């Protein structure tokens, strides 16, 4: 096994696993709490990658609110498994124009242009890397950066549950999306606001925030309270940037600007 992606793909409140292997088969494993084990559901969900896999990521790249899967391969086309919402996936790598046959080594995701959707960066061996700019979708979003105080500063292990009209959505800060890591989470919202956002930190502390306006960038610090709001414009949709900082402590905000190497390809989803 060379990579693992963690996410609640079936929205049942627990975390499932996708493992990438170089033995010719990568697959999805469903978390089954009742049996205290993970079940191989690669075949029935349509996520069997019968190739020499090198990297993976669990991310909502089609902006419809559920988690999809990206898989890079060394000697065959990369895969984009779209979550259909019925416990099955459909490989739409050709549709999304990311069926690259270069020797893929890893995939990273993140909102590089701060427009509320997840962009994709594929690292290749022997040729240019590829940056795929996501065209987005009709839904709203929350972009959440977490800072832990009492355990690890990157908040690895923190679980965020957003509630919209009584429906929960679970995301976890982890370093297991292929070979990449970020403490910034992306949550799709199909309403104009999120009723509440519950953050369970690795220390056991639980913070609750809300209601929150959609299309908002949040900076959360363990044990913090919502403070300043800065308004900006993002196309035709109002966007807010809110900082949540620990009471009495100065907040910090470190941002990285993506640098696309000269000659690297920039594509569009």
What features would you describe in this structure?
The structure is a single chain. With 269 residues, this protein is mainly beta. The protein has one helix at residues 42-45, and strands at 3-7, 16-20, 27-32, 37-40, 53-59, 68-73, 79-83, 89-91, 103-110, 119-125, 130-133, 140-147, 159-164, 167-172, 184-189, 193-194, 196-200, 206-209, 212-213, 216-221, 224-234, 237-246, 265-268. A five-stranded mixed sheet has the order 15-12-20-22-21, with no helix packed on it. It has a four-stranded antiparallel sheet with strand order 1-2-3-4. It has a four-stranded antiparallel sheet with strand order 5-6-7-8, with no helix packed on it. The longest helix has 4 residues, at 42-45. It is globular, with a radius of gyration of 18 Å. The protein starts with a strand and ends with a strand. The relative contact order is 0.14.
Main sheet record: 5 strands, mixed
Q: What's the β-strand tally?
A: 23
Rg (CA only): 18 Å
Shape: globular
User: What would the average pLDDT be, to the nearest integer?
Assistant: 79
Distance between the termini: 29 Å
SSE string:
EEEEHEEEEEEEEEEEEEEEEEEE
Class by helix and strand content? mainly beta
Report helical residue fraction: under 10%
Residues in β-strands, percent: over 45%
């Amino acid at each position: 096994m060379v990579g693992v992606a963690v996410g609640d793909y079936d929205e049942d409140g627990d975390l499932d696993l996708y493992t990438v292997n170089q033995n010719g088969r990568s697959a999805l494993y469903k978390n089954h709490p009742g049996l205290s084990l993970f079940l191989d559901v690669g075949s029935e969900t349509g996520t069997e990658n019968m190739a020499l896999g090198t990297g993976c990521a669990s991310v909502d790249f089609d902006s419809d609110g559920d988690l999809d899967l990206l898989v890079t391969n060394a000697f065959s086309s990369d895969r984009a498994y779209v979550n259909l919402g019925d416990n099955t996936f459909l490989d739409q790598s050709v549709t999304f124009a990311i069926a690259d046959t270069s020797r893929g080594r890893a995939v990273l995701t993140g909102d590089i242009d701060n427009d509320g959707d997840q962009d994709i960066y594929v690292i290749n061996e022997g040729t240019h890397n590829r940056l795929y700019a996501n065209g987005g979708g009709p839904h709203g979003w929350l972009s959440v950066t977490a800072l832990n105080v009492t355990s690890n500063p990157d908040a690895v292990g923190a679980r965020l549950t957003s509630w919209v009209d009584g429906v929960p959505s679970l995301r976890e800060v982890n370093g297991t999306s292929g070979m990449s890591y970020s403490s910034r989470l992306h949550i799709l919202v199909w309403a104009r606001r999120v009723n509440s956002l519950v953050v369970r930190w690795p220390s056991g502390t639980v913070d609750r925030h809300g209601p929150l306006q959609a299309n908002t960038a949040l900076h959360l610090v363990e044990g913090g309270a919502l403070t300043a709001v800065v308004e900006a414009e993002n196309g035709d949709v109002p966007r807010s940037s809110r900082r949540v900082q620990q009471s009495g402590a100065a907040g910090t905000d470190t941002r990285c600007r993506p640098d696309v190497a000269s000659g690297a390809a920039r594509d569009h989803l």
